[in-house]
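This part of the workshop introduces the protein records we will be handling. To make this concrete, we reproduce a full record directly below.
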Amino acid sequence: MKELSVFIDESGDFGEIKERPAYYLVTFVFHNQADCIEEQVSKLEESVRSSGFDVEYIHTGPVIRREEVFARYSIDERRKLLYKMLNFVNRCPISYLTVIVDRREATDKIALSGKLAKAINRALSEHIEFFSDFDRIIVYYDNGQVELSTILNAVFSIQFSNVEFRKAEPQKYRLLQAADFICSMELLRIKRDENRLSKSEEHFFYKPQELKKTFLKSVYKKKL
């Protein structure tokens, strides 16, 4: 039986827009279970441990902004940690899609829910041949946002009869962390194109063209 795992992460929320422009992103990371990633996971975890990091979850946003458990690490240490995640993503046999909704076109929960549902449905439909190659599809999401959980259940259930949903904690699934990483990179791409990277983001990616040529270019190669 051919099984596809789908790991999902989002950026944004259904609340009031605090800044303009603003976007809501949903990233889907796809992994054919026939492609073993135990070696890649082991190498990542050993590399993290051997470098002296005491972290379960490589949470990209907080790594860049020096938040949460990452506050105790220097910028050079945090940059090293993010490069480890980039290398992990590069080495894994995965692909991804990111759906983006401009919040200026969806100013309340109802409008955002409708636009997200349509955008996700359209993205899945455009790659229906890819999905049809699998006997079972398992969707992993941490149910962090109830509204998105509802949309995902509805859209996937309509599109596929062979889908199963599982609540998953990012600490236990490196590919959920990969989805978080890719989603963050897609948001950084938008902010870079609009010349509005934050001070912490500019400080973190201080080398000229590093964000574009090293991170964004590498990630884009994984796009479905």
Residues 40 and 88 are 6 Å apart (CA to CA). Residues 174-193 form the longest helix (20 residues). The chain is about 50% helix and 15% strand. The two ends are 22 Å apart (CA to CA).
